[in-house]
Design brief:
alpha/beta, Rossmann fold, Cytidine Deaminase, domain 2, six-stranded mixed beta sheet, five-stranded parallel beta sheet, 13 strands
């Protein structure tokens, strides 16, 4: 989508800086951040990745399209434009070493920190440390657009039923344990049985896979998606949106649980409308709260 002209339309942007470097992966979240920047008159420069970033968001914007393994080129480009503040946003499929096609700078990084033994969270923390050594400041998207972050409470008209709460509690516990191992963020659970946990395939594929394991005659399974306990919250916060709800509806999932303050809720009004239509509850729970209404 082309960058609109700067306007006086009210913006959700919380802070401005000279030029914000946006390291953009896939999905809709980079577009939402860019839209907020456009409304606020915030200058941006977008780093996009071949085969991952939606090319539409680059139209009429200062940007570069490159591969994930081109760290040296990316750093040189940012420095040439005197860009010091960065936001990493959007999903990125992690390639293998061959698909990475590392330049010298990237190869040196992985020689030091290793590649195969790293989960996503460990890798992102290493990337952050490396960039901060180079003089960059890393920001979370929530520092700029606070209306992306889920607030505590139900989304839409439906709330969990009393029978859902044991699965919710168990799902949260399993998801947090999974996160501690730096494996994934999501769990599908039904009647106390964990049908599947997220690994490299991502949430959508997890939802589709677990349809095969759901028990007929019972209430539909639940999707529980949480932030890893040790996760750097400036990177890869768990997110849900309309596509998540649609995927759940198509695969017999009756409820979605996320963490308030530690998850991104994309287009909440649309999420609520579609969830209500499919009779799916969506709720964001305060991670600090132990209690709930049953």
């Amino acid at each position: 989508m082309p960058a609109p002209e700067k306007s006086r339309e009210k913006s959700s942007l919380k802070k401005t800086i000279p030029t914000l470097g946006i390291i953009a992966g896939g999905g809709i979240v980079p577009q939402l951040l860019l839209h907020a920047c456009d409304k606020a008159g915030q200058d941006v420069f977008v780093i996009a990745f071949e085969g991952q970033t939606d090319p539409e968001i680059l139209k009429n914007r200062p940007s570069m399209l490159t591969r994930i393994g081109a760290a040296g080129q990316i750093i040189r480009t940012l420095r040439s434009r005197d860009i010091k503040d960065l936001v990493f946003i959007g999903s990125v499929r992690r390639p293998g070493l061959v698909g990475l096609k590392p330049d010298l700078r990237t190869a040196q990084f992985f020689t030091r920190v290793g590649l195969r033994a790293m989960g996503d969270d460990t890798l992102l923390k290493a990337v952050r440390h490396e960039l901060e050594k180079e003089g960059f400041t890393i920001h979370g998207v929530q520092e700029f657009v606070d209306d992306l972050v889920a607030v505590a409470g139900q989304v839409g008209r439906l709330a969990p039923k009393k029978q859902d709460w044991p699965d919710i509690e168990r799902g949260l516990a399993v998801a947090q344990t999974l996160g501690q191992l730096d494996v994934g963020q999501s769990v599908i659970i039904q009647d106390g049985i964990v049908l599947g946990v997220e690994a490299a395939e991502g949430t959508d594929e997890l939802i589709k896979r677990c349809r095969l394991y759901q028990r007929h005659g019972s209430r539909g399974a639940l999707l529980v998606k949480t932030c890893k306990p040790q996760q750097d919250r400036d990177f890869d916060l768990p997110s849900i949106g309309v596509e998540t709800v649609r995927m759940c509806a198509e695969n017999g999932v009756s409820g979605i649980v996320i963490q308030a303050g530690r998850s991104l809720l994309i287009n909440p009004q649309d999420v609520a409308s579609l969830a209500d239509h499919h009779k799916i509850f969506v709720i964001a729970l305060d991670p600090e709260s132990r209690g709930h209404d049953q």
